[in-house]
Amino acid sequence: MYEDRKGPVFDLPVPGIGMTHELGARPWQQPAQYTKIDDVAQLYVAQMQDESFTEQALNLLETKMPVTMIANAMQTTNVMNGVHSIDLGVLALPIIMEMIMFIAESDGVEYVTGTERDIEAEIEDSSIQAAIQKVENEDTMMGEEQPMMEEQQMAEDVMPTGLMARRV
Amino acid sequence: MSQMLNNPAKTSYLKFDALAKTMQMNPTSPTKDKDNGVKGLLKRLKQKPKDNEEGSEEQEPLEIALDYFIAIRQQRNKLKQEA
């Protein structure tokens, strides 16, 4: 079934999930609490204006933890708790990051954004693309060769079956 | 491609950043000015016109997110100018 697939298949259960909990019993398997980006953005802005959050965030930023990492963690936790969907989380990520930077700047804390250029990842991306292209080219070449081979084999396989046919 | 899986925050932030910069260059953007004389960022953000209000067009989620992003960026810029 999945032998001739070209991309990854995502509509499958994670291996071992059947041994953990029944379907729908986890918060992320339920409909999300917030379904509009407006509500999600306001939720984060309100959360981040809390004093305890500000202190924690500043402590983390002082340890040179990238802003991207904090934002990713916040967003993933809320997805896990069923607060919002992954799509809304990804849309809210820049808002969270900008807000964290705003807090850091207003308190005069130096921070690492985490958006610096990652040359290794870029090279990895291009090498993956090259490998995909190579496999696709090989597939098309194989696809052109195969019918010729099959036709030859078919011609060899067809044996005369009539009464007057010569026997080999 | 793998960047989005490894670090979605970085990828989405860079895209929003580029969009925000483009919008700053073109003042004809659909983004509205949030400075209505109300103090407090959250209060100003809450003053955004609702979808069912008269005269307001329904915005795409991306546009709404961008509105919030730009509003916070404006606050950051204001802070930098004051410092």
Explain what the structure shows:
- The complex is a heterodimer of chains A (168) and B (83).
- Chain A is 58% helix and 0% strand.
- Chain A has five helices and no strands.
- Chain A has helices spanning 37-48, 51-62, 67-80, 86-106, 119-157.
- Chain A is elongated, with a radius of gyration of 28 Å.
- Chain A starts with 36 loop residues before the first helix and ends in an 11-residue tail after the last helix.
- Chain B is mainly α and 83 residues long.
- The longest helix of chain B is centred in the last third of the chain and has 22 residues, at 61-82.
- Chain B has helices spanning 2-6, 8-25, 41-46, 61-82.
- In chain B, 61% of the residues lie in helices and 0% in strands.
- Chain B has four helices and no strands.
Quick structural summary:
Chain A contains 5 helices and no strands. Chain A has 168 residues and is mostly helical.
Helix and strand topology:
The complex is a heterodimer of chains A (168) and B (83).
Chain A: H1 37-48, H2 51-62, H3 67-80, H4 86-106, H5 119-157
Helix pairs in contact in A: 1-4, 3-4
Chain B: H1 2-6, H2 8-25, H3 41-46, H4 61-82
Summary tags:
A: 168 residues, mainly alpha, 5 helices, B: 83 residues
Largest interface between protein chains, with number of residues from each side? A-B, 38 and 31 residues
The helix/strand class of chain B is mainly alpha
Secondary-structure element series of chain A? HHHHH
CA-atom Rg of chain A in angstroms: 28 Å
Distance between the termini of chain A: 41 Å
Number of strands of chain B: 0
* Amount of helix of chain A: 55-70%
Strand content of chain A: under 5%
What is the assembly state of the chains in this entry?
Answer: heterodimer
Instruction: Give the class of chain A from helix and strand content and strand pairing.
Output: mainly alpha
Distance between the termini of chain B: 39 Å
Average pLDDT of chain B works out at 76
- pLDDT below 50 for ≥5 consecutive residues: which ranges of chain A? none
**With helices defined by DSSP (H or I, 4 residues minimum), what is the helix count of chain B?**
4
Low-confidence stretches of chain B: none
Overall mean confidence score, pLDDT of chain A: 85
**Secondary structure: number of strands of chain A:** 0
